[in-house]
Amino acid sequence: MSDKFGEGRDPYLYPGLDIMRNKLNIRQQQRLEQAAYEMTALRAATIELGPLVRGLPHLRTIHRQLYQDIFDWAGQLREVDIYQGDTPFCHFAYLEKEGNAS
Predict the structure, then answer these.
(1) Could you report the average pLDDT of every consecutive run of 10 residues in the chain (102 residues)?
(2) What are the CA-CA distances from residue 38 to residues 30, 61, 65, 72, 99 (Å)?
(3) pTM to 2 decimal places
(4) CB contact at 8 A, 62 and 54
(5) Given CA atoms 62, 70, 93, 84 in this order, what sign does their dihedral have?
(6) How far apart are the C-alpha atoms of 8 and 27, rounded to whole Å?
(7) What is the CA radius of gyration of the chain?
(8) Could you give the domains of the chain?
(9) In the 8-state DSSP scheme, what is residue 17?
(10) H-helix or E-strand spanning residue 83
(11) Rounded CA gap, 84 and 102, in Å?
(12) Residue 83 burial by CB count (10 A; 0-12/13-18/19+): exposed, middle or buried?
């Protein structure tokens, strides 16, 4: 993730680093990615499969279930845009609309 908004303005990053704040207090990107991979794989195995449920509430529940061990904000809507490298994620202002699109 990159603080495209200026030093310290992205609440999801550690100040002065391009590392997302996390419950594990990991401040090296490769270590965080490995921990996230391992922990989300374990959580993914606990997701109950069933009929397709559409909509943002369901997506937020999945996000919370997958990332609850890593990020305090898992399942919450973002308040800023985030990037992975130079690749932007969905503009935060569009999350509700896009998350509820059928």
Answers:
(1) 55 92 98 98 94 92 97 95 87 93 78
(2) 12, 19, 14, 17, 26
(3) 0.84
(4) no
(5) negative
(6) 15
(7) 14
(8) 1-102 (1.10.3290.10)
(9) S
(10) strand 83-84
(11) 26
(12) middle
